[in-house]
Amino acid sequence: MFLKTLELRHFRNYETQRVEFTAPKTILLGENAQGKSNLLESVELLATLKSHRTSRDRDLIQDGFAAAHISAEVSREVSDADLAITLREKGRRTVSRSGEKLRRQLDFLGALNAVQFSSLDLDLVRGGPGVRRTWLDTLLTQLEPVYAYILGQYQQALKQRNALLKQDDRPPDTAQLALWDAQLAALGTRVIRRRSRGLARLVPIAQSWHSAISGKTEDLVLQYASNVPLTEDDPQVIQAAFLEKIQQRAIAEQHQHTSLVGPHRDDIDFTINATPARQYGSQGQQRTLVLALKLAELELIETVVGEPPLLLLDDVLAELDLKRQNQLLEAIGDRFQTLITTTHLGAFDADWLTRSQICTVQAGHIMTTP
Amino acid sequence: MAQALVDAKSQMGYCSICFHLSAEPVCDICKSNSRDLQTLCVVADSRDVIALEKTREYRGKYHVLGGLISPMEGIGPEQLNIGPLVHRVNQDNIQEAIIAISPSIEGDTTTLYVGQLLKPFTKVTRIAFGLPMGGDLEYADEVTLARALEGRRSLD
């Protein structure tokens, strides 16, 4: 797939800006805080309807304006798509595809796929479980858009159950709590199964990239670590285990007034040679792992969707040493349309630069150098 | 026009039997003799009654809960007209209670709750969810299709 044009209005620090992408690689060059990452963020929104930087639409709108617009033309193998998102300071966002307003946001997903790789991604190894859950959820949303709906349903049931546990100091009505337990277990089981299934598909690809990059035969293992015991992949068995676990934690839940069992507290374990990746090796080795994960994401999306997704590299090349940089650039080739942000062109291969479109970003304005 | 709005506001109340919007203490549907007295349709809101009435398919009576269970909004079963519903089903020899509540998280939870309470007294059913008329199977989303499969029935 190829992102042909992108138009931003009152988005972050952009007043009105139209960009036409003319090469498989676009380098966005500029000092810090000029709007490079904002542009990538708008593409991320088109692909996932989420930003990894904020969950509030208000933050995405230029100061002093009531709404922001993002629109794009995407060319796909089968058909082209015109995408548009309107974000509002007050009220719900609206999305449209080829001029038609969509009633459900779910129908918007899948028109554009993108993998983002930023310096923050080291948190996948070093950060808390929430970072890893968000990463897997974002990937799953792109592999199977219906997952966004399933996850949303689970989160809604979780919010309702937490609200019930927070009511007053008296223990909640047991009949009502039992119903929310059942909802949480039924919906949570779907989330758990989709997550572990998705991760299982990623594992072999990540392993082969990992050994290719590190040049060693290290034993990389990615495991979905659920707090509900997963003995077999049968929804009824998992649901029963889920409910049993809720029973075990009932007193703790009443005490802490929050739900303690479910996929919202799960993690993904990365281990290398039987050692948790967090404790294993240098920063360089952790970067190798993250790079392997990102390349595996690209490949998996390409396999499932049938077309290569976009790659968004946010300030990340500078962090990789030359060897890893070359491995990344080689893996991308010309197959994946890539948007790269950088503060200087020094680190790039000369041959690469001549084949790339270079855009200068300055204070919310983008100038294309031919 | 302004007076009409004022009148509407001052005269509007709820039916004392089914809790549907009504200008009088008992609404027209509850007063009617020509309707099926043994079938009761449980809905969340008066608007649902109006929507179902438009179909002209349903000849039973209604019961309006006045909302859905939602702890986030502080709405528990005791804030809804559930007590009077159980009483009605128990007293009026209701043969079937049809729950017609939207398939949201809150709707499903309310359906389960009401269903459990009514089961000892009567047959409880739930409306089916599935493909819209004129909809094409091929273009239906997974969520709708899964619901439609759940609610399948045998060909007679």
**What is the average of the pLDDT values of chain A?**
91
The largest β sheet of chain A comes out as: 6 strands, antiparallel
Largest chain-chain contact?
A-B, 21 and 17 residues
Distance between the termini of chain B: 53 Å
Count of individual helical segments of chain A: 10
Poorly predicted ranges of chain B (pLDDT <50, ≥5 residues)?
none
The shape of chain A is globular
| CATH topology annotation of the domain at 34-127 in chain B | Dna Topoisomerase Vi A Subunit, Chain: A, domain 2
Computed over alpha carbons, the radius of gyration of chain A is 22 Å
Lateral arrangement of strands in the main beta sheet of chain A: 2-1-4-5-6-7
Quote the beta fraction of chain A. 15-25%
Q: Give the helix tally of chain B.
A: 6
Shape of chain B: globular
Instruction: Determine the CATH superfamily of the largest domain in chain A.
Output: P-loop containing nucleotide triphosphate hydrolases
What name does the CATH topology of the largest domain in chain A carry? Rossmann fold
* Overall domain count of chain A: 2
Number of extended strands of chain B: 6
β-strand amount of chain B: 5-15%
